[in-house]
Design goal:
Number of domains of chain A: 2
Number of helices of chain A: 15
Largest sheet of chain A: 8 strands, parallel, barrel
Distance between the termini of chain A: 35 Å
CATH architecture of the largest domain in chain A: Alpha-Beta Barrel
Number of strands of chain A: 16
Oligomer: homodimer
Largest interface: A-B, 35 and 35 residues
Strand order of the largest sheet of chain A: 4-5-6-10-11-12-13-14
Helix content of chain A: 40-55%
């Protein structure tokens, strides 16, 4: 059994799970750090272990463009290429085709687009995406889907869900790497009936796990919870549920309360590169002049490598001097912070006080 | 005794030494890695230990401009500011004033110049330099000197050496941090008599060690050895000798054969950031297309973290994708390479085969 629910909260739908992959067992609920181009920016595999990262998310779109399928195949897959022996989940590339690339046309077979790097023309559909994910050798592959923008008119959303279901079936039927799990993605925008239809359609096809997609795309927070509420009840209890692109602490807690197990987001790594520390008391701009002489750690009470060894004064200096070590140290802190937050959440669920804990953390995170 | 010569080669002037500092004992001959702005670019203290770095060189000029004296004082010195518990040597800032800054005027008291960062006006002379180095708390401080360009007319060199000797005396007489050693710097350009005069003048003042300055400033290789040959014989046997700004492997070996113990250079860290690996078979441009599919390490037989874990194909991808991890991994490799080279050199001296070893490595490094 790849996924096992080991405990369910009595006051919410939160659950503790154990997800078994080809490269190890993962405790859920969990946060996945994003390694877009075959590296979590500035971190190496030993840093991922040290920050208690369980799963790395690789971007199929980026890896297809650079270094490309052949180079990853020559290495024997992404695990060996990047030296990461733990689990890897790959997205399908659909989101990036619609958000980054210059899209040329969409057919049942997929999308024709121009690379955002050099304009080179590519085709990406269920066949190409699953083939790339097969070569990458990710532990979990995502189906190729269309990620709708917000807002989106209902007629467009209806057509898109039809397309997404066709692509999901084609993704399921394509060849996969040995032991590779495949997750479906529920789309449907803010339309509850469409979300339900999409979820039920995916369950009919049958997947190893299910994601809620098309959230965290600029919509107000309540629409996000609505999308989750309209999707999760129609997904099987015994499969993992994954909200894509979400990494805000209290939002993850709210989704866990609705029965979600997995998250990913570029926020912790991206904001670190801009000098922002994520803390349990909110975001902190470490470049600010008020930290110039501050000998305290980036976050009081934090046990990450950055906070155990360096002061705000030093990290601020590095950031202001343009030293890459500043970005690296904040990345280490932010990734640790989110992983520790999820560990704390698992402890709260196991301890039976998750609902109270969730209310308490809402004010600061 | 701060410096002890523990063995001298019979066929050359190479020697094995042990330099005791407030932050530990250093084996010589040795290479010092440069941490310009309070960090060896991209590396943290644990990386310095792992790459077998013994001493970090801090740049007084850069640290004075940013973060500035007060912030380093608030941290209790550079060791605590950057989290490095090993020995630190600081230069005087003279070289950067003459090479980087917009120099306004020179007097017996020092230089008035505009910061290369924001144009702010600073004064840097023996008093200011030694005060900044005192606050930094380096284990070894260098006297404030004028580094002559190449070529330089003899009359200018004569005046400059007079100035350098005055500044050396003033630097010696200034207050120092507790346990801080102070090294003099022999200048004199390509003029043997001037080098001798400067060396003898410095020995009269009396320092804990002596550097040969004004080399590796664009002069042909033979002029560099000439400057070393014209300086070293007039320096005491029982004090360490340091050629500043030199980090080319066979050149360091040649200088060690002439009785030199210490070196520093930005080359290993700077070229890493441009994608060049330093190897025992010469420099290698890792970005080159020929490494696209290469599963071998950056350098065959190397035991550094980069070479033990990653392929040329992967490091090349990181560099071409602009990922900072690529620069970081090559920096780790290059620093390790030079430190290992020096360790190999010490073994050759101890084993009595240094002269043969030096001839053998000349062809490839």
């Amino acid at each position: 059994m790849a996924f096992e629910v080991i405990y369910t909260d009595t006051r919410t739908k939160a659950r503790l799970g154990r997800l078994t992959t080809t490269h190890g067992v993962v405790e859920t609920p969990m946060f996945m750090v994003v390694g877009t181009q075959g590296t979590v920016k500035g971190l190496e595999p030993r840093d991922l272990l040290e920050t208690r990262s369980q799963v790395v998310l690789g971007n199929t779109y980026h890896l297809m463009l650079r270094p490309g399928r052949e180079i990853i195949a020559a290495a024997g897959g992404l695990h060996r290429f990047m030296g990461w022996d733990g689990p890897i989940l790959t997205d399908s590339g659909g989101f990036q085709v619609f958000s980054l690339a210059k899209l040329r046309k969409i057919t049942d077979k997929g999308c024709v687009f121009n690379s955002h790097i050099d304009g080179h023309e590519f085709t990406l559909g269920p066949a190409e995406s699953m083939e790339m994910q097969r070569v990458i050798g990710s532990d979990i592959a995502m189906v190729f889907d269309e990620c709708l923008p917000f807002p989106c008119p209902e007629d467009r959303a209806i057509k898109s869900v039809e397309q997404t279901l066709k692509w999901a079936k084609a993704s399921k039927d394509a060849p996969h790497a040995q032991g590779q799990q495949v997750f479906g993605i529920v789309q449907g925008g803010v339309y509850d009936q469409l979300r339900r239809k999409c979820a039920e359609g995916l369950v009919d096809i049958g997947f190893d796990g299910y994601a809620v997609g098309g959230v965290s795309v600029g919509e107000p927070e309540n629409f996000m919870y609505q999308a989750v509420d309209a999707s999760v009840p129609y997904l099987p209890e015994d499969k993992p549920r994954y909200v894509m692109g979400l990494g805000v602490m209290h939002q993850m807690a709210e989704c866990v309360a609705r029965g979600v197990d997995m998250f990913d987001c570029v926020i912790p790594t991206r904001v670190a590169r801009h000098g922002t520390a994520i803390t349990r008391r909110g975001n902190v701009a470490i470049k600010a002049a008020k930290w110039a002489f501050d000998q305290g750690p980036v976050e009081e009470g934090c046990s990450c490598y950055c906070c155990r060894n360096f002061s705000r004064s030093y990290v601020r200096h590095l950031l202001n001097a343009g030293e890459i070590l500043g970005m690296r140290l904040l990345t280490i802190h932010n990734v640790w912070r989110l992983n520790e937050f999820m560990a704390e959440m698992r402890t709260a669920i196991a301890g039976g006080y998750f609902a109270d804990w969730k209310e308490q953390i809402k004010e600061t995170t």
